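Supplementary Methods S3. Input chains for the assembly prediction are listed below.
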Amino acid sequence: MTPPLDSTWRSARSAPRPAPVLAVDIGGTKMAAAVAAADGRLTGRTQVETPSAGDAAQLWATLTSLLDRVLAAAGVRTGELAAVGCGCGGPMEWPAGRVSPLNIPGWRDFPLADSLKERFGTLVRVHNDAMCMAVGEHWHGAGRGHQNMLGIVVSTGVGGGLILEGRLINGASGNAGHIGHVVVDPDNGPPCVCGGRGCLEAIARGPGLAAWAQSQGWRPDDRESTARQLAADAAGGDAVAVAALRRAGRALGVAIASAASLCDLEVVTVGGGLSQAGALLFGPLRAAFDTHARLAFTRKTKVVPAALGQDAGLVGAAALVIAGERYWARG
Ligand SMILES: [Zn+2]
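Predicted structure tokens for the full assembly:
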């Protein structure tokens, strides 16, 4: 069997054909996978909807059928895989890879890493999906070349991952960098799913923002009020949608100013559906950041849109096993 790329990938790069890895990204709405080469390039990217009412076995069957299709499309046999890297919604028991994703009720304490290991007979690493997105942006996206970075993703929730001195920071339980539950408005902010009040996530997550906009008279065309639609309406000049993005931008700017002070960051990347809104989000974000980041070292922190879009999670999942010396705990 091919040894894990971790210790060998540098030398493997000079080999004629380094073994590929399987990259997997599992969230509450979709499961995506691709085969990744040693340089992180993805082939055969495929995604399916996550069965919303599936039990553990149905979810596993959906996942393995997706993975089989991806491998077939890329012309890779199971025995040729060097490793599997996987991002999954949290919470999870890390680094064991037992997952209980909030948005996937059918999996509670599901042994995802062990199941993948049994199926593919190779090295498997599972990490929080937001950590993987941050790693993807650091390895090959908007954070590339920086040593100190926070990667934020704003979607159904608000997650993040922290890279300091060139290495992913895990923390005691694998949750470091979870900026979504940094408190930005303890007195007047909305209640948060975590049980607290005024967290960044409570204000800026897509459903929270859409609910706020609707309370102010915004009417989505669709049955679903997505952050993307809010961004599109704001771009079209809808005053409430513009105000909603200002609200999210301000909350992000305040939280990022605190993070910059705590962690001495060079760059913060912001991804997810809402980041498509461009200046309508980043304008208020930078204004709030400038108001609150007053120290010389925090004023140097750059806040930029994420660059990899939907691929960030897969690229980061691949990096867990291809560049584990930077993106996985020292064993
Ligand atoms: Zn919270």
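The chain is about 40% helix and 20% strand. Residues 34 and 44 are 5 Å apart (CA to CA).
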